């Protein structure tokens, strides 16, 4: 997400409580800048697109928390409307909007303006838990959701009814992402160990299928610098890098965790820089060889 180039965010959940850690990469390694505690697990986090110090987390108690990293106290605001775990949260990248979308195990997505104390709209239709909600980087007011009901759905904030339903997998879908270079292209990652690309103009068949993971795919991210490159992390302990335009799309497999790999992002500021985390309690910042820029 947005934010300063040196900041890395992670949420940790366990033993009935959660911690938001704000980390900084420097020459000596990774340093802890701030940490904030919450009384339930924190499952997702997103930077504000308008204030580099502000971010939102989503929690196991169904609430969203707004934090200011320049302050050391508790959250600025807490929004509690979801009736089950709030598993996903994303801040719109469209500068003209102050919109946040959350997805929950209560099978709904909710639209929020952080300046307003309640949700603006609730989106219903999924028949399973929502694992991922993410804004389109191209189309204002448009977001995608991925669910345990095996569908990818496209929504428009101007109308609560779903715009498009894609039966993307025959298994729970844990993650989705929009291509940064093609407004019609999304990718899904699922429990069936596959990644699938979808063109919104023709959803009868995926435009690509990527196979290689041996357990559920937890998160997938398109590259912000390369139109056909993406990364995925899995419960098989690996992070894999792909170029779906190539005959042999798997570029590299990174195995540096000893537990489920559950978090992944690609830097918007430093080309080739990747951050991931796993249940082994390790955060890794690195550049895989397939993304290293030749000198």
Automatic annotation (TrEMBL):
Tell me the Pfam families matching this sequence. WD40
| Protein name in the entry | Peroxin-7
Q: Which GO terms describe its biological process?
A: protein import into peroxisome matrix
Could you say which residues form the signal peptide? 1-21
Q: Establish whether keyword Signal is in the entry.
A: yes
Single GO term (MF) = peroxisome matrix targeting signal-2 binding
Instruction: Return the SMART domains for the record.
Output: WD40 (SM00320)
Subcellular localization is given as: Cytoplasm, Cytosol; Peroxisome matrix
At which residues are the WD repeats? 45-68, 79-113, 123-158, 166-202, 210-252
| Chief location bin | cytoplasm
Give a yes or no for keyword Protein transport in this entry.
Answer: yes
Give GO cellular component annotations, separated by semicolons.
cytosol; peroxisomal matrix
Protein family (similarity comment): Belongs to the WD repeat peroxin-7 family.
Which UniProt keywords are listed?
Cytoplasm, Peroxisome, Protein transport, Repeat, Signal, Transport, WD repeat
What InterPro entries does UniProt report for this protein, alphabetically? PEX7, WD40/YVTN_repeat-like_dom_sf, WD40_PAC1, WD40_repeat_CS, WD40_repeat_dom_sf, WD40_rpt
């Amino acid at each position: 997400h947005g934010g300063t180039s040196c900041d890395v965010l992670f949420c940790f959940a366990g033993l009935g409580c959660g911690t938001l850690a704000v980390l900084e990469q420097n020459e000596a390694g990774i340093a802890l800048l701030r940490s904030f505690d919450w009384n339930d697990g924190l499952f997702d986090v997103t930077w504000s697109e308008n204030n580099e110090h502000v971010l939102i987390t989503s929690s196991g108690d169904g609430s969203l928390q707004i934090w200011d990293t320049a302050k050391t106290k508790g959250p600025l605001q807490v929004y509690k409307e979801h009736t089950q775990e709030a598993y996903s949260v994303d801040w719109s990248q469209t500068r003209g909007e102050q919109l946040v979308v959350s997805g929950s195990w209560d099978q709904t997505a909710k639209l929020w303006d952080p300046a307003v104390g309640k949700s603006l709209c609730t989106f219903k239709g999924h028949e399973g838990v929502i694992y991922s909600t993410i804004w389109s980087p191209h189309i204002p007011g448009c977001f995608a959701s991925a669910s345990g009901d095996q569908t990818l759905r496209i929504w428009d904030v101007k109308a609560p009814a779903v715009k498009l339903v894609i039966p993307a997998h025959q298994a729970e879908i844990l993650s989705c992402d929009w291509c940064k270079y093609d407004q019609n292209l999304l990718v899904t990652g699922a429990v069936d160990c596959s990644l699938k690309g979808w063109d919104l103009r023709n959803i009868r068949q995926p435009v690509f299928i990527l196979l290689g993971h041996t357990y559920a795919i937890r998160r997938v991210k398109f590259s912000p610098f390369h139109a056909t490159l993406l990364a995925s992390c899995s419960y098989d302990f690996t992070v894999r890098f792909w170029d779906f335009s190539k005959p042999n799309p798997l570029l590299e497999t990174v195995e540096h965790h000893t537990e489920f790999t559950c978090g992944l992002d690609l830097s918007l500021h430093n080309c080739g820089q990747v951050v991931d985390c796993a249940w082994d309690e390790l955060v890794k910042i690195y550049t895989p060889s397939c993304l290293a820029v030749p000198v």
